[in-house]
Amino acid sequence: MNRWIVVFLVTSTITLGSRATATVAPSTAGAEMTRQVYISAIDASGAPVTDLTAGDIAVKEGKERTDHPGFYRRGPQYLLTYTLPDGVKPADRLSVSTSRKGVTLTAPSRVATK
Length: 114
Description:
Immunoglobulin-like; five-stranded antiparallel beta sheet; three-stranded antiparallel beta sheet; 1 helix; 8 strands; disordered N terminus
C-alpha cells in the first residue's frame, strides 16, 4: 500500500511539474520560431531517469520532426529547446518520444501557437 502511494506521489509530482512554454519572436510570418518544452522521464519502477541525452529524444510538432539543439537537465526535469524552420507553420500538437527501453516520458501534448 505504501509503495503505491509513493509511486502515485512521484508520478503526480512529475506530471504536475510538466509544462510547455512557447517563445514566439515578434517577427513576420514564416520566420523561425523557437520553443521550449519541459519533460520528465521515469523508469519502470517509477524512479526519475537522470541520464537521458539529446540522442534519446525525438520531437515532432504537428507532422514536422524537429531538431532540438537545446537539451538541458533541470532537477528531475529536462528542458528541450527546438526551432521550427522558416516556412513551417506552428502546430498546437506536440509529440515527444524516447528510444530508451523501459523509460516513460511525461510531456505536454499541446503547445500554444501564438
